[in-house]
Amino acid sequence: MFTGIITGLGRIVAIQSLGSSSDHGKRLTIEAPAGYLDDVGLGDSIALNGACMTATTLDLPLNRFTIDISAESLAKTTGLAETGTVNLEKALRAHDRLGGHIVSGHVDGIGRVTHFAEVGESWELRILAPRELGKYLAYKGSITVNGVSLTVNRVTDQADGTELSINLIPHTVQNTALGRLTAGSQVNLEIDLIARYVERMLGDTHNNISKKP
Q1: Burial of 114 by CB count in 10 Å (0-12 exposed, 13-18 middle, 19+ buried)?
Q2: Please, what are the domains in the chain?
Q3: 180-205 pLDDT, tens per residue?
Q4: Half-sphere exposure (Cβ direction) of 168: Cα atoms closer than 13 Å
C-alpha cells in the first residue's frame, strides 16, 4: 500500500527485454536519488509512476535498482516502456503518516492531459479519463495521477470520457514528474479505493433486492 506522496524522483536508465516475443516483459534499471535505497531490501515494493513494482536487484553504490515488468503491466500503464523521469514512492509502513490517501499501486486506466497551464501561483491540470472511470470521480474526491495523490476540483462528463480538473501547487510541480507534462501526455490513473468498494456494495445491494421474490 502507498499514500500517493512522492518520496523521490528516479530515472529509468536502461531497459532490457526478457524475451524475444511481445508476450515477454522488460527489466528496467532505475536510478534513484542518493541514499534513497538505504532502507530498501530485495523484494520490497516501490511504486513507479503509481504502478507497484518489486525491487529484484539493488546496486547501492550506484543508487540503482531493477524491476521486472510483465507485458500485461506494460500494456495497462504508460511511461514505463522508455527511459526518463519517474515518480518514486516506497511502500507504506504501519507507523507512517497517511499524508495523501490509501493507494494500492494498481493502475485502473490511462488518461490524457488536455490542458496544463499556470493560473496565478498554481497550475491547472486537466485530464481526460476513460469513460468507464467517470463514475468513480467526484468533486473534492481523490485521484492518483502517475502515483501522486491529488484532489479533483471539477468533473465534466463528455462523449469520449470524463474530464477532471486538478489544481497543483508549486511544490508538487517542482518535486514530482508532473511538472514535465504537456497537453497530449498520457498518465497513469488510480481511482479512490473507497469508491471502488462503495460501487461493489451498492451493486450487491441492488442484486440482492432484485433477487427477492
Answers
A1: middle
A2: 8-90 (2.40.30.20), 109-199 (2.40.30.20)
A3: 999 999 999 999 988 888 888 887 54
A4: 27
